[in-house]
Design a protein that fits this description.
190 residues, 9 helices, globular
């Protein structure tokens, strides 16, 4: 297990994602007069953690893993759920502190949706570029959220935590991403 985690660069990804979130938390704590981080900061922190953790979605030799006698789909799904749990634990641990990322529903929705989208991208374009689409989508959506149902569907990461269309899009992306990545794994490299 230790070799598997090291091959997927999990220790480095853990340190970078937790360290990045801690740095943003510390900056918000010291530089802001508000306790709650603004929506843009919450979305970008979630995306930062997801982008860093996306590097763990493939090993250096995916073909070797595909030939192993192990049943990989449930292991890949557990890997994604562990990444989701890490993002949620780190960001929701800030709730009782002087600077917090929230509301909880926003963190859960965006973490699940962006991680599912990243997994879907890893399945189609590979791990090296898996974070491009989620990062671009999250940044644009957080900076320019649109009103109305169609606007909420298009800019779901930047919508308020009470938006039902945004929750539906995030849930669909999460489920499709977990199923696609679980069944196929990361796209093969040429």
């Amino acid at each position: 297990m230790t070799l598997h985690l090291r091959a997927r660069r999990v220790p480095l990804a853990l340190a970078a994602s937790i360290g990045g979130a801690a740095l943003i938390w510390a900056l918000w704590l010291t530089l802001s007069t508000e306790r709650d981080a603004i929506l843009l900061i919450v979305v970008l922190t979630v995306m930062l953690m997801v982008a860093v953790l996306s590097t763990t979605l493939a090993a250096p030799d995916e073909d070797l893993e595909r030939t192993a006698a192990l049943h990989w789909p449930w292991r890949r799904a557990v890997h994604l759920l562990a990444a989701l749990a890490l993002v949620l634990v780190v960001l929701l641990a800030t709730q009782p502190t002087g600077a917090r990322f929230g509301p909880v529903a926003l963190v859960v929705r965006d973490s699940a949706g962006l991680l599912g989208l990243t997994a879907l991208c890893a399945t189609t374009v590979g791990v090296a570029r898996a974070w491009f689409l989620p990062m671009g989508w999250a940044v644009v959506a957080a900076m320019f959220p649109q009103p109305g149902t169609w606007g909420a569907l298009a800019t779901w990461p930047g919508q308020p935590h009470t938006s039902r269309p945004a929750a539906v899009v995030a849930a669909v992306l999460a489920v499709v991403g977990v199923v696609a990545y679980g069944m196929r794994g990361a796209a093969r490299r040429e």
